[in-house]
Amino acid sequence: MSETSNTKLSKKSGLPPGSLVHIGKSRSEKIDISLLKYNSETAEFHNCADIMELNSLVDKNYMNWININGIHEIESIEQIGKEFNIHPLVLEDIVNAEQRPKFEDYDDYFFVTLKASGSISVKNIMDVQQISFIVGKNYLISFHENKNELFQKNIERILNGKSKARKNGCDFLAYLLIDTVVDNYYFALEEIEDKIEILEEKILKDTTGKTLQEIQKMKRLLVMLLKAVFPLREAVSKLERKESELIQDSSAIFFRDIYDHIIHIIESVESQRDILSGLMDVYMSNTSNRMNAVMKVLAIIATIFMPITFFAGVYGMNIENIPELKWQYGYLFFWSVCIASVVLMLIYFKRRKWL
Amino acid sequence: MSETSNTKLSKKSGLPPGSLVHIGKSRSEKIDISLLKYNSETAEFHNCADIMELNSLVDKNYMNWININGIHEIESIEQIGKEFNIHPLVLEDIVNAEQRPKFEDYDDYFFVTLKASGSISVKNIMDVQQISFIVGKNYLISFHENKNELFQKNIERILNGKSKARKNGCDFLAYLLIDTVVDNYYFALEEIEDKIEILEEKILKDTTGKTLQEIQKMKRLLVMLLKAVFPLREAVSKLERKESELIQDSSAIFFRDIYDHIIHIIESVESQRDILSGLMDVYMSNTSNRMNAVMKVLAIIATIFMPITFFAGVYGMNIENIPELKWQYGYLFFWSVCIASVVLMLIYFKRRKWL
Amino acid sequence: MSETSNTKLSKKSGLPPGSLVHIGKSRSEKIDISLLKYNSETAEFHNCADIMELNSLVDKNYMNWININGIHEIESIEQIGKEFNIHPLVLEDIVNAEQRPKFEDYDDYFFVTLKASGSISVKNIMDVQQISFIVGKNYLISFHENKNELFQKNIERILNGKSKARKNGCDFLAYLLIDTVVDNYYFALEEIEDKIEILEEKILKDTTGKTLQEIQKMKRLLVMLLKAVFPLREAVSKLERKESELIQDSSAIFFRDIYDHIIHIIESVESQRDILSGLMDVYMSNTSNRMNAVMKVLAIIATIFMPITFFAGVYGMNIENIPELKWQYGYLFFWSVCIASVVLMLIYFKRRKWL
Amino acid sequence: MSETSNTKLSKKSGLPPGSLVHIGKSRSEKIDISLLKYNSETAEFHNCADIMELNSLVDKNYMNWININGIHEIESIEQIGKEFNIHPLVLEDIVNAEQRPKFEDYDDYFFVTLKASGSISVKNIMDVQQISFIVGKNYLISFHENKNELFQKNIERILNGKSKARKNGCDFLAYLLIDTVVDNYYFALEEIEDKIEILEEKILKDTTGKTLQEIQKMKRLLVMLLKAVFPLREAVSKLERKESELIQDSSAIFFRDIYDHIIHIIESVESQRDILSGLMDVYMSNTSNRMNAVMKVLAIIATIFMPITFFAGVYGMNIENIPELKWQYGYLFFWSVCIASVVLMLIYFKRRKWL
Amino acid sequence: MSETSNTKLSKKSGLPPGSLVHIGKSRSEKIDISLLKYNSETAEFHNCADIMELNSLVDKNYMNWININGIHEIESIEQIGKEFNIHPLVLEDIVNAEQRPKFEDYDDYFFVTLKASGSISVKNIMDVQQISFIVGKNYLISFHENKNELFQKNIERILNGKSKARKNGCDFLAYLLIDTVVDNYYFALEEIEDKIEILEEKILKDTTGKTLQEIQKMKRLLVMLLKAVFPLREAVSKLERKESELIQDSSAIFFRDIYDHIIHIIESVESQRDILSGLMDVYMSNTSNRMNAVMKVLAIIATIFMPITFFAGVYGMNIENIPELKWQYGYLFFWSVCIASVVLMLIYFKRRKWL
Question: pTM for this one?
Fold first, then answer.
């Protein structure tokens, strides 16, 4: 994935800063705009046709959660940027699906971008999706790469009044959404852990070249997960330390909780990597053990048959006057020598523990 | 272990923060509630049927040590949370048996959660149990995953008045209990060290594929221990630095002692890991040495018998006029050539130190 | 590259500090001097024959971007140094094409030197070029090792008035140019990533010694890229933290953006190195798997033919009274024994999964 | 060593803090108590029967150096603890021979514990001994695990008035003693370095499995040394930074010197470890080179004899009408073919550089 | 080298601190004392017979650069120490040729000790020489292990008035000399880089056991260089941060330049180590590839000759009534079978890409 998308990153080379260039899979469907406005008493959900309609609905007396599914319509992003007075570099980061997770504070609002882990495909590639938040005093704008149901439960809980968000500011809503994304990593992590466990059993039975490739793929999945989570640690730590004035003390304690989760995920990824490198060792050692086994069979066969073949050769010689040839029990004698030789060899192998 | 429990971690995904979800092995037995109330003059121990009874017994004029064995009855945990005014995130961490060890200060109380190492099973899996403490001015609440005798001695010593705890606050009691948990790691560590020592002797004699798997298992045990101890270092260092105002100067010095123990355990684990990676090297090199030995036997046998088999073949030819065939001492000559050839080969192998 | 150029680094040994010695590929072409002077209203571009002409054109009422292509004419560099009152150590660094990227603040101006990545040759060697900037209140002097078109777009955009640079100071121009250089790394990175991807497919099919050498070459390319980018991180971080007073707040935010890009590149290089070391493992394991396959063929052939060759030898013996020899179905019997032996062996190999 | 002693560490589990439990090799001999009291004019040495006698001799107008050889008599240690008002945790650390080196400041006195390296046994195990110091205004108490002559020279030099200690406080005496211990590490380090050098020559000649085990043992010796020296760095750095008010400026400069020595030892240990891992590589590669050599001999023998044995077989066939059999020069022809075949093979091997 | 010299380090064990013991190669030649006194107008060079003569020549109105070649005459060093009031620990460090590079500030003067890299011998051992500087207000004393021409150019440039040193204080002279030493590392580094490049080409052609030893030797050379340069980084960084008040602002900027060079050298050493470990991989993989080639030849030979030897054996049997024996075209038939068998085998090997 990263290879093909990175190719697009160089598209920006040579453009002035703040130029909006969509980087990511190209899409053609229309972007999806919705608004959830609520306060402690009421909550309304609106699907908007375009930014114009959205602007007419936003109301500074409510908390306004604007959700944009799709970042490929540069013009809409620019319109929102203008409306909410967003710095061009922030807009540039939003439409760049290869952006590294980070937190930035811009006095009037703060900006968080992160990666949501998706399902892992049959080919063991993880679908990673970028999500960005702009959080101001009474608005939160969330941007997704494409349509998805990730925040569906959060929306429902706000609408039916069960969520604490109703009584808190947009910083708490930001917490809820980031928490949803981070908790989602556990699904990916657990899926990978299951796959590694299966791989582990497989490796003890059968070690074809394919098992090695699977170990490599698992390594990459973990790296992919780490690349999503690792920079997030720094970003969330800034939220926890209240680097933006928009974050209240009561929310900070919740961001500390997310921070703990992230550390937990990172440590789990690290220990899974340890397990994988242990599996590599097992794989490598299995390969040499099998080679050893092959060698032993070869050595045993050669050691048993070479002497007796030599004996047969001796009595096949045409030299005159070989006494054994004319001896009455010659044939019996030959077989006795052969059997004795084989038995001695087998005893020797038994002693060396080759058998 | 971690794999099956982690699976449950994703259960929390999508739930609002502070939702209490028990994560860990599911249990059905009733939880066990007890209260030890004491001051410098007197000490009483009560088994309580439920939280109601407990509340009626707690007395702010004493130090109250409440001990909850079992974290799977969400309602009881919630009742305690209400009674002592505990932050929902703390309760969430208490019922999550996969929580990473940590210390958190909440002005009125502080919260410590850690892992107690248990016995190591025949399959070399360590039983790790989560213990959490909430420490306030005159109360300490301890939570265990299940019934256990870990703190039995501490209870007895307080009851019979021998413990220093009787003359100190709840911060000192917290120290005593954490110290008990940390000292307990030594049992696990020493058990692992003994197993590694046995493994070491085994590896010099016999290196089947199983030895490698045992090395891997030992590695995992050490990782498991490290995962319990490593985050604890940070937590205890916060206690030592008196990040909570509830910790008195005289207690801080004791937490420094625990800190030293933790560092000592971490360093021991690290050096055991070094030993294990040395064992891996020995194992790998034994494998190639054995392969070498097999190859040598094969090469020696082949080198000795190939020439003499050839000689036998020569004198088995039906070509007319082979002078040796009719020579009187032909058979003797043949054997002399064979023996000379074998002796020369043996001398050669002796020189190359193959024998 | 580094080997031959480093050789020259020792040329400076024994010289007094501030001695200008050109280090890098020796060139003979004349250096190329140009001036772009602009303010928010107007912009002019001049090619200058020499430093004298340049000095006569520089105008303190404009922003003056002086561009020097070629650092091998020591006298010209010295003249500029005198004119703009540049510290001799800075001039020494400018003419040393082996200089490590860095930022230095000298009150009146600041100095940044960095490496621009160029194209990767067929032999997988990257062309790295040194670029230095001296940035004062109303002038910016850029030095290139040789003529190149890297900043052509920036010049055009300033001339046609589209660039934000027109309304900003020289610190913003410095940002634009550094951004151009950093964005350029993406080209190199993506080219390397593509090559590694091709290598990856290749390694699964065919693993001659050459594949290993290609892995090594890719490693070196990544090291070369890292050597260019890694020290730059520190330099740009100083710019972002406004260590020079010449950098305005509005520009600092842009340098933070460059800093993000650099971190992103470093992380990508690191993960490519991980992939390469995974490829090494695959390569190594393929080598032993192939050895295993060869050994198996050898062992199977030997195991099949050694017994039957022995049987043929037995019936070729000249011993009298071998009953089978005179038996009517002797020949049939012999072949039956041979075929039975071979079949038994094949069954054995099937069971051991060698076939 | 560490394995058996650690076993005892768990003895402390479950005991209240400050419980004195001797951890280390059990001993029965009486502990040895001596007092050296001195000032700039006079110095006296006393052997004391017990702590009572010691107490009667200690004189606050002198510097009192109390030396306790043996830490297994818990009661004597407790008596000293009471007399000098030592914190119970300090006493606990003194009698625990598995204590990690450290420095602790207790206002009235400071506490340093470290490991003295002893001789290396034939089995390549190093005798490590724990030494602790309690340093107060006019007293220094040193504790050894057993009787030894380590500080004999220091005692003599103080008695004959040659030592600077006579004119300085107890902090300077502490410096002298720690310096003696640290200088002693050089003996161990140099012994290990010599052993590694011998091992290095050995490995080039002969690489049996034993050499590998010796490499492993050397690794452990270095780890043991590092475990003694590494935590000491932190302790001495605290002394250098005068964390105790008892350390005067003039002494601090001397502790800086010890600090330098420790860094030097750590760096030497690290580079010896590098050398050892290089030796591992040489060992491993020697193993495969020898395997290669064995394989070559096998391949050469097989390649030479297989064709000519086939020829002999051909002319041993009983097929009628084989023209060569009746040819007059048949036997000569056969030998010519054999010799030609062998010569061709040898030329081939020469070309492939196998000979 | 380090092994034999370290042996001497333990000579100091047991001696009081500040005892001067010469550690290094023992020498007998007389030490060489010279004085260069200069100010901005004049400069004089004197060779002194002994310290007495030196003292009579030193003039506080000039800058006095005292150069001592040879540190084995303890008495002379002590005399200088007394004259310039140098701390005994500094003198101890000067005569200890195994001293780790460092900077120390002693109010009236500062002390710098470092290692100058010398030529690399045929056996690939680098001659490292210790140089120490004591720098006071108007004097600089430099100590060398033995006579050498390292600073000859600096002396000449001061005498003929070309050096900036004439117009600056002793801190600038210190800069000039340290710069000379650091620039000298480039010679060693480049020599090693050249040797590694040669080694690289060699390894692709021929990989005997010797190549591995050469890799190991190169590793050691790099470690030796790193051991000289790495601690120097810290020392020079202290000079740059003006930890001594004797260093003026204008000089500090020059020390920053040295600091840059040191970082550059360290990074180059690191990347050379990377290259060496890449070479190790190539070496190891070449070894297995060669083993693979040997195995293939063996397998091919065995596979081709075993079947046909069996056929020859069959027709050599004395069983009566073998029809082929009496068949007219028996011999032709036999050879057809043999050739067919060989051709089939060759096709099989071609397919498996063994040929």
Answer: 0.81
In angstroms, the CA A12 to CA D93 distance is: 63
Locate E261 and state its tokens: 């060079």
Rounded distance between C-alpha atoms, residue D25 and residue D9, angstroms: 12
Output the CATH code of domain B294-351: 1.20.58.340
Beta-carbon pairs below 8 A across chains D and E = 153
Q: Are C235 and C132 in contact (CB under 8 A)?
A: no
Q: Neighbouring chains of B at 3+ CB pairs within 8 Å?
A: A, D
Task: State the smallest CA–CA distance between residue C14 and chain A in angstroms.
Answer: 43
CATH of domain D2-285: 3.30.460.20
Distance of CA E219 to the CA centre of its chain: 8
| CATH 1.20.58.340 domain residues, chain A | 296-351
CATH 1.20.58.340 is held by the domain D289-351 = yes
Find the farthest-apart pair of alpha carbons in chain E and give their distance in angstroms, rounded. 122
> Hey, what CATH topology would domain E290-351 get?
Methane Monooxygenase Hydroxylase; Chain G, domain 1 (1.20.58)
**pLDDT at residue number C2:** 39
Q: Please give the residue that has the higher pLDDT: either C210 or C135.
A: C135
Q: Where in chain C is the domain with CATH 1.20.58.340?
A: 292-351
Q: Take residue A112 and report the two structure tokens written for it.
A: 């968080």
Contacts of C277 (CB under 8 A, 6+ apart): none
d(C-alpha C44, C-alpha C64), whole Å:
10
Nearest residue to B232 via CA among B189, B265, B262: B262
Tell me, which fold does domain C292-351 have in CATH?
Methane Monooxygenase Hydroxylase; Chain G, domain 1 (1.20.58)
Q: Are E37 and E64 in contact (CB under 8 A)?
A: yes
Token pair listed for C195: 């090559």
Taking 3-state DSSP, the helix, strand and coil percentages for chain E, each rounded to the nearest 5, stand at 60, 15, 25
Residue whose structure tokens are 């840059």? E260
Is residue B236's pLDDT more than 80?
A: yes
Q: Which of A310, E302, C304 is nearest to B305 (CA)?
A: A310
Q: How many CB atoms lie within 10 A of CB A309?
A: 23
Q: Is E111 helix (H, G, I), strand (E, B) or coil?
A: strand
Candidates D199, D317, D326, D352: best to mutate against E (most CBs of E within 10 A) is: D317
Q: Which of residues 148-187 of D touch B (CB under 8 A)?
A: none
Residue B7 has pLDDT above 60, yes or no: no
B and D: number of Cβ contacts within 8 A:
154
* Burial group, residue C188, by CB count within 10 angstroms (0-12, 13-18, 19+): buried
Sign of the C-alpha dihedral, residues A242, A248, A249, A251? negative
pLDDT at E63 over 90: yes
Q: What is the mean predicted confidence (pLDDT) over E44-64? A: 91
D130-156 pLDDT, tens digit per residue, is 999 999 999 999 999 887 788 988 999
Per the DSSP assignment, residues forming a β-bridge with A132 are A113, A143
Q: What are B292's two structure tokens?
A: 């070498």
Q: How far is C210 from chain A (nearest CA, A)?
A: 20
pLDDT digits (tens, 9 = 90+) for D81-108: 999 999 989 999 999 888 889 999 998 9
**How far is residue D61's CA from residue D59's CA, in Å, rounded to a whole number?**
5
CATH 3.30.460.20: which residues of chain D? Answer: 2-285
Question: How many angstroms separate the CA atoms of C153 and C165, rounded?
Answer: 13
Give the three-state DSSP class for A65: strand
pLDDT, average across residues B141-151? 87
3-class DSSP string for A197-240: HHHHHHHHHCCCHHHHHHHHHHHHHHHHHHHHHHHHHHHHHHHH
Q: In whole angstroms, what is the distance from residue A311 CA to residue A338 CA?
A: 8
ipTM: 0.77
pLDDT > 80? residue E240 = yes
Q: Which CATH class is domain A296-351?
A: mainly alpha
